[in-house]
Amino acid sequence: xxxxxxxxxxxxxxxxxxxxxxxxxxxxxxxxxxxxxxxxxxxxxxxxxxxxxxxxxxxxxxxxxxxxxxxxxxxxxxxxxxxxxxxxxxxxxxxxxxxxxxxxxxxxxxxxxxxxxxxxxxxxxxxxxxxxxxxxxxxxxxxxxxxxxxxxxxxxxxxxxxxxxxxxxxxxxxxxxxxxxxxxxxxxxxxxxxxxxxxxxxxxxxxxxxxxxxxxxxxx
Length: 220
Known about the structure:
By secondary structure, the chain is an alpha/beta fold.
């Protein structure tokens, strides 16, 4: 797939490297592409969105809402994966509390796009190496049912996580606090090289998208 990653910080670049290794076409959308290092393909945010089948938001939350509002028309028809944790300016609490979620706000501002929550509860180390001695790290996905969700689950699997469908978009009200918990644990000295896992006594069911579903979205 052609994937635009908006933001070229540590998480964005780790996602780009992992997905690029699976033969996805990656472009980074940044405010000033000429100031970025030579490695990777960097474009303006608008140009990156225009050529993409899917968009990953890997920007700080304080910039994400304005970015989505500004580019809402260009996001129409796109799969948008929100990897942010919506913290307030001081990073002390969730900006929207627990009665809504950041991604529900973003979806309301770009109604022509289809939003999914994923990649918000892991750091760049886990994204680069999701397999731990105890097993494979889990990544939950919240968003509407249908073929686009299967594609997102497939992308999560491509990165190397155990992809788990967490339900509809409102389930992000649970996943965003999970991202804040990850940040709190990292601040306590775990240095980012840890992740959450899901233990089950049942055999896991495959969650990846079928190749046919991916091709349909690439060419449609």
